Amino acid sequence: MNMASFRTVIGLEVHVQLKTRTKLFCRCSTRFGAPPNTQVCPVCTGMPGALPKLNRRALELAVLAGMALHCEIPRFTKWDRKNYFYPDLPKGYQISQYDLPVSQNGYLEIGDDQGRFASKRVGIIRAHLEEDAGKSMHDEAAGVAESRIDLNRTGTPLLEIVSRPDMASAREAKAYLTELKLLLEYLGVSDCNMQEGSLRVDANVNLHIDTDSGTIATPIVEVKNMNSFRAVERALEFEARRQYDQWRQTGERLGDVPKQTRGWDDQREVTVPQREKEESSDYRYFPDPDLVPVVWSDAELAAIRQRLGASPREVRSRLIQEAGLSAYDAGVLVQQGPAMIAYWDAVIAEGVSPKRAANWLQQDILRLLKERSESIDEFPVSAEQLAELLRQVESGKLNTTRGREVLTVMVEEGRDLVSSMESLGIREVDASELETLCRELLQKNPSVVEDVRAGKVKAIGALIGQARKLNPNADPGAVRNLLMEMVNRS
Ligand code: ZN
Ligand code: MN
Fold first, then answer.
1. Residue where one domain finishes, among candidates 423, 442, 466
2. Are residues 460 and 412 part of one domain?
3. Which of 184, 275, 458, 481 is deepest in the core (most CB within 10 A)?
């Protein structure tokens, strides 16, 4: 069977939890992991007569994210009620934004360090502020058909970021999510922790298929319930294949059947049908009469814009241009997040060469962090201490292997550089000590001396290995130079 040629068309809706201490319209805590229903009040549980009051910080974080996504920030924005019935929604409506969102018409630039696809801009239709619902807990595992509701999350501020259908593959969708998450982390807008539910993704996907009678579009499917970026990628790959097969069998196209919602089953690696998707008219949106609209002044927006730091994309190009790193190396470092870049900057500020710092951070530091399951903020060796160590390596006082041993002691025993070196018995070898060592080696190995004289300079390597055993503190480079000098002198 010939495959008809087709394009995959993907748009993503991402909900991220904004980093605020309190909820969007009340003063309840947003801390994760508290016992169920302990972070609630009359406002977020929808008691009659309770009045919402906007959390200013959440609004500012939303605007900051909109600005970083190159969005327009309209001067006027308001709050709407989105009405639906669900057990985890005590008010019977969600406070959201309908026709006048806090930001709109932006884009996110995505690229690929490995060059698998060119850089492209993914359009952002809107990024609006809304409150989260509660959480249903289904106790199926315990064999009891009992569902409970935890309202701790109800009213938590969310930013819903809606992209244009500009992604053409599952891989591009993953690249978009990765870059978006990184951008929000750099902005300090969200911690984007998928396990704790502070980043959730819904994907809209269909195919545009070339047929003899023109291009047709398959029905759009919204895929939900994806718990990792990897799951998003697999779900989209599966869904593109499934839609193609479905079209082959039935000729089904957009317009013949309504939009469908499907959920990703991570175990079986398939999407399965869920409830029919609501049309937006089903939600009976109307302006929330309890909340005043927001009108921005130029000065207020300018003050927020001041807080925009460098985006991951800008940091990458800084590392490439100023520090001479490869695109790949810059990508690996930036991917670690803003704390790693702050650490990097502090190491470089101490005068360590960027190339050496990049190597040590990527190889040794990342490995140690992984082994210890620590973030760079928790790492026991400060940037200044690491720089001190790397300067010893750079000046030749420590070779790389010895440097690694010293770092291990610094990390594991929490000692400073000097005491770590002492504990390993590392000290400087003086000139006479080095000379005695080399003379001994040459006396014990006359054949090597002959070989070197005969032009086989490589033979000297055997002696360097021996020198290392006799005195691990002797610098191999210095040993080599002195050996050669002594052979040529004699
Ligand atoms: Zn509350
Ligand atoms: Mn939403």
1. 423
2. no
3. 184
Ligand 2 centroid vs 14 CA: distance in angstroms? 8
Query: Which ligand lies nearest to the CA atom of residue 30 in the structure?
Result: 1
Report how far ligand 2's centroid is from the alpha carbon of 96 (Å). 7
Domain with 144 in it: 13-202+277-298
Ligand 1 mean position to 82 CA, how many Å?
Answer: 19
In a domain? residue 341: yes
From the CA of 127, the nearest ligand is 2
Cα separation values, 61 from 190, 301, 307, 419, Å: 9, 12, 10, 45
Task: Please state the pTM of the whole predicted model.
Answer: 0.85
Nearest bound ligand to CA 24? Answer: 1
Ligand 1 centroid–CA 54 distance in Å is: 12
Which ligand lies nearest to the CA atom of residue 129 in the structure?
2
On whether both 289 and 410 belong to a single domain, the answer is: no
Query: Rounded CA gap, 233 and 282, in Å?
Result: 30
Contact indicator for 232, 240 with CB cutoff of 8 Å: no
Q: For residue 449, tell me if it sits in a domain.
A: yes
Please, what is the Cα angle at 180 between 313 and 62, to 5 degrees? 105
